[in-house]
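> forwarded from #structure-qc
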């Protein structure tokens, strides 16, 4: 990269003002991308699974192919908006929790088609654009009590950690105790699962490598660990070179046939009772919107605090632009055939590598676009190689616990609920919701109702309504 390009990037993204440089930002962007790249593989599988379950394997393959390109494009649109408009180091991609809600509740459970479910996502995106333009989402952020804001960073840290532990295979399901440590002795015997054990071992090696390199202040420690673990995964039987293939013609054809601008507005409201259909769709839009809003808000607040991208009032720099990018990408993602696009927690991996500006997200966005061609290369990186990055970021984010006031139980309880419900319910939104609900209850019944802002109460009651009347899937 020549000096003129370096100079332009420095001026446009204000690199010097943010104590960073082109090399650091690019490494951070690559790290974020590699950490979130699993979405490109998992999202098509999730959104096509209802067809697989119903026995229509041919349509399942078409949807999978179409959603793959839609996922790449949706993530590219959202992340490039953040890069040039908000100039922040955050990536956007389809949220896996919302993808599961899209596939298993909206499609499989309630019987809506893929094209009709996309309409629901599109409407929620338009709703977001409107309320962001009106400043309502910023008002919601200001309505979140300080104790809950402080709890978001460690809560999301634990949430990222449990994702990493699951991807690593270090934590596995257990009928008696819900979760347990992987049985390392299963590398031998009649019930041996060598791949699971080797994956867990590889993740521990990768985590230690990140820690050692970080202690020695080696730039790109997370990225080096991911690449080294991928290479080490070859002799361990975890990195499968045989997956490499560059045949794209069928994916492109299926994208234009089933995913691109395939929104069925008429069919969505064509039930026997139009008013019932409108009510049901409204409830679904509300459910998608609430989860997306508080997932993205929580991620933005926590990641911005981690990277120091907050002003003297403690508010995220360019927050409204970041929120508008998120809103536009949700609507745009529906148009190209994918579920709700949102700010992803994996952005923290790039921030941990030093990413501070939109150049980080620009790098990630370009890689999302190139993935349409090079996804087979990405797909050979095993989950166990990227999992340590998430666990390590969890370590960094957990330090925020010390800022919470645990002496006042009416602040400690909401903060605690925010932290624990994020990882244990696998949802950032649930953590914030339970924090707000317990905050209002605790303050009201201890004679401190004057500390409850009207909008805080409205948000809490909205979540109560959502839990009582809208299925979680």
């Amino acid at each position: 990269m020549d000096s003129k390009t370096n100079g332009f990037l420095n001026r446009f993204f204000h690199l010097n003002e943010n104590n960073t440089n082109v090399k650091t930002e690019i490494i951070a962007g690559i790290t974020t991308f590699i950490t979130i790249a699993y979405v490109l593989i998992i999202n098509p599988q999730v959104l096509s699974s209802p067809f697989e379950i119903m026995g229509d394997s041919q349509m399942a393959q078409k949807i999978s192919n179409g959603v793959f390109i839609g996922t790449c494009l949706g993530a590219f649109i959202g992340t490039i908006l953040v890069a040039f408009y908000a100039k922040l180091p955050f990536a956007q991609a389809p949220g896996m929790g919302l993808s599961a809600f899209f596939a298993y509740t909206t499609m499989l459970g309630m019987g809506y088609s893929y094209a009709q479910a996309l309409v629901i996502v599109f409407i929620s995106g338009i709703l977001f654009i409107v309320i962001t333009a009106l400043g309502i989402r910023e008002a919601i952020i200001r309505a979140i009590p300080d104790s809950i804001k402080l709890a978001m960073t460690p809560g999301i840290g634990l949430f990222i950690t449990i994702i990493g532990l699951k991807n690593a295979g270090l934590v596995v399901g257990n009928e008696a105790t819900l979760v347990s440590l992987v049985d390392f002795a299963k590398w031998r015997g009649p019930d041996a699962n060598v791949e699971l054990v080797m994956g867990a071992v590889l993740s521990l090696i990768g985590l230690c490598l990140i820690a050692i390199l970080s202690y020695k202040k080696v730039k790109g420690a997370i990225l080096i660990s991911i690449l080294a673990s991928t290479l080490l995964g070859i002799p361990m039987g975890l990195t499968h070179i045989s997956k490499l293939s560059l045949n794209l013609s069928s994916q492109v054809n299926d994208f234009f046939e089933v995913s691109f601008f395939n929104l069925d507005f008429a069919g969505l409201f064509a039930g026997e009772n139009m008013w019932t259909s409108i009510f049901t769709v409204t409830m679904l839009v509300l459910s998608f919107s609430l989860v997306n809003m508080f997932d993205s808000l929580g991620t933005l607040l926590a990641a911005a605090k981690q990277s120091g991208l907050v002003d003297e009032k403690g508010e995220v720099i360019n927050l409204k632009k970041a929120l508008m990018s998120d809103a536009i990408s949700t609507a745009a993602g529906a148009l190209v055939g994918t579920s709700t696009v949102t700010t992803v927690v994996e952005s923290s991996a790039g921030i941990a590598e030093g990413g501070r500006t939109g150049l980080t997200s620009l790098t990630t966005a370009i890689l999302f676009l190139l993935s349409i061609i090079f996804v087979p290369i990405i797909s050979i990186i095993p989950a166990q190689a990227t999992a340590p990055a998430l666990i390590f970021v969890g370590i960094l984010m957990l330090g925020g616990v010390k800022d919470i006031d645990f002496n006042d139980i009416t602040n400690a309880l909401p903060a605690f609920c925010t932290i624990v419900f994020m990882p244990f319910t696998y949802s950032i939104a649930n953590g914030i919701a339970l924090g707000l609900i317990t905050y209002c209850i605790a303050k009201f019944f201890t004679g401190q109702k004057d500390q409850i802002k009207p909008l805080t109460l409205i948000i809490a009651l909205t979540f109560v309504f959502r839990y009582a009347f809208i299925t979680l899937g």
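QC bot note: The radius of gyration is 22 Å. The chain is about 70% helix and 5% strand.
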